[in-house]
Amino acid sequence: MKTPRITIDANCVINLFDIATSTGTSVEELRTLIRYGLENKVEIAITTRLEADLLQDRDEERRRRLLQFLNMFPVIGSIGRWDVSGWDGDHWPDQRTGPLNVEIQRILAPGLERTDRRYTNKVNDIDHLTGHALAGRDIFVTDDRGILSRRDQLRQGPGILVMSPAKCVLHVDAILERSKPQSLPTDGLDPKYHDRRLIGRVAFDYSNNSHRYALGEAQHLFETRWSKASNLAIHVYTDGDSIEGLALAKGASSIADIRDAEAFDYSSRVRTPRIGEVVVWRNVNGLYGATQIVSIKDDTRGDDGDEVVFDFRLLPDGGRDFSSV
Predict the structure, then answer these.
(1) DSSP secondary structure string, 80-144?
(2) What pLDDT was estimated at residue 121?
(3) Is 174 in the same domain as 195?
(4) Which residues lie below 8 Å from residue 290, measured CB to CB, with a gap of 6+?
(5) N or C: less crowded end of the chain, CB within 10 Å?
(6) Angle of the 10-17 helix axis to the 27-38 helix axis, nearest 10
């Protein structure tokens, strides 16, 4: 499971940590997100513009107390601005950062002028979102009604997913529920077409058993499916109930060459590896296995039958690196 990376807005920090206020919103939801962060269920960060927001607070004691909490979170840079940015951390405008900041301003505050009421707050809002987008993070969490009211435009334009704390908790809970390991049933599998080992070599007639061959068991089950392409290549599919995705490991000459299984493209239902190529399989528990084609027989091309021989390795611990297996 990829850990959701969330960025929290200044109002969330104030609502959560200003213990003197009686008007804070989403406090319980924010506490849940902080707990998820401590449990490594989410990655929480703030932007460099949060300090600028807090420095506007006229309550000196509250400002001092809230600024102390900034050390709890990793800080990501926003767009550089004179009299706001430090010498490091922020991104000075270039061909990417400048247009992004302008697009977010057009959505949040079209026609913004320095004479506008709450000008500095609006600029900080824009910069929070810019920093979030530049860091490629997943969810921007805010209680700001102005930002939440423009969530559709932010999603459709710069591709920023904005949520309230309550929506974010529900979203993360759904991810956590989907990621719970499932013990996958093997009772109906033909033992002639099932290898329960984590490492081995398989030779089977891919025209039999509905083209299926199962590897592993329980949480580590991979129900692979194969069909005829030629005696040099073969089709593989994601059609097994236990399979979430598959990818060709381009550039890998052996299974041991794969150091990050997540780096490949899992977007297609079918791939066609050639002899010597490696396929990475991801099952519904987010575990990875890999197969390398050793040989292929095709009875329409002069062979005495249909057969594929492949080596396989399954990673039992949720890892992505096959080099040390």
Answers:
(1) --TTT--SSSSB---TTHHHHHHHHHHHHSTT--TTSTTHHHHHHHHHHHHHHHHTT-SEEE---
(2) 84
(3) no
(4) 249, 255, 258, 261, 278, 279, 280, 281, 312, 313, 322
(5) N
(6) 100
**Beta carbons within 8 Å of 104's beta carbon, 6+ residues apart:** 126, 129, 130, 133, 154, 157, 158, 160
pLDDT at position 311 is 98
Looking at residue 20, its pLDDT comes to 59
On whether both 20 and 158 belong to a single domain, the answer is yes
Condensed to tens digits (0 to 9), the pLDDT of residues 163-208 reads 999 999 999 998 887 777 777 777 789 999 999 999 999 999 999 9
Owning domain of residue 41: 5-178
In a shared domain, residues 132 and 227: no
Q: Using the 3D structure, point to which of 145, 178, 211 is the last residue of a domain.
A: 178
- Which residue type is seen at 5? R
Domain C-terminal end among 178, 199, 229: 178
How far is CA 313 from its chain centroid? 24
| Residue with tokens 């007639």, as numbered in its chain | 205
Task: Give the DSSP H or E segment for 292.
Answer: strand 288-297
pTM, entire model: 0.61
Sheet containing strand 199-204, strands side by side: 199-204, 307-314, 288-297, 278-283, 243-248
Distance CA 2, CA 261 (A): 13
Q: What is the pLDDT of residues 121-136, one digit of tens each?
A: 888 899 999 999 999 9
pLDDT digits (tens, 9 = 90+) for 252-304: 999 999 999 999 999 999 999 999 999 999 998 889 999 999 999 999 999 99
> How far apart are alpha carbons 170 and 148 in whole angstroms?
16
Tokens of 149: 């009211």
Reported as type and span, the H/E element at residue 3 is none
Residues 173, 51 share a domain: yes
Q: Are 248 and 264 in contact (CB under 8 A)?
A: yes
164 & 25 share domain: yes
